[in-house]
Design brief:
175 residues, Nucleoside Triphosphate Pyrophosphohydrolase, 10 strands, 46% strand
């Protein structure tokens, strides 16, 4: 177990805090650790049919390019992960799901971040909104799972939550 001695430096924003902490390591020596305090998030794999899903294309500033991903976002205060998944599905695609099932929960950056992502599958979809949030999403794309896996093999889909979420479906036997 490592014990925090003090925070050396901190950067705080609306949703994320980053601390550089001085710690006592297991061997009794001092070291430094970066800790990103990040809210939980939810991601959703929206199934239009057994072999067709919705994906969103959006610009990612850190990568400086468009990416193809499953819908996802931060859990708001007072909101459950399932409520977040339903909200993000509606905001990013304009669809509502009659059924949401938890696929898995994982820590995407366990070495330095407190974030947990809860992944849901969404089924029995109905278009319910006027569309999607165009400030964030460039397009909503209907894709066959076979197309998605080909894009994964070619390195065209690189988003970690999307790769892990789709892979987990194979493990847990969804859809």
């Amino acid at each position: 177990m490592e014990k925090k001695i003090r925070t050396i430096a901190a950067l705080n924003s609306h949703n994320v805090s980053v601390n550089l902490d001085e710690v006592i390591l297991r061997n009794g020596k001092r070291g430094e650790r970066i800790k990103i305090i990040h809210p939980e998030a939810a991601a959703v794999i929206p199934f239009l049919s057994e072999d067709e899903i919705l994906m969103v294309r959006q610009y990612r500033y850190a990568l400086e390019r468009q990416t193809l991903e499953i819908p996802a976002g931060k859990v708001d205060p007072g909101e459950t992960a399932e409520e977040c998944a339903a909200r993000e599905l509606m905001e990013e695609t304009g669809y509502k799901a009659e059924k949401l099932d938890l696929v898995c929960t994982y820590a995407p950056a366990i070495g330095y971040s407190s974030e947990l992502i809860h992944v849901y599958s969404a089924k029995i979809l109905q278009q319910a909104g006027q569309g999607f949030d165009q400030r964030e999403i460039s397009s909503v794309e209907k894709m066959r799972l076979s197309e998605v896996w080909e894009m994964v093999k070619k390195g065209e889909i690189v988003d970690g939550k999307t790769l892990l979420s789709l892979s987990m479906l194979k493990i847990v036997g969804e859809p």
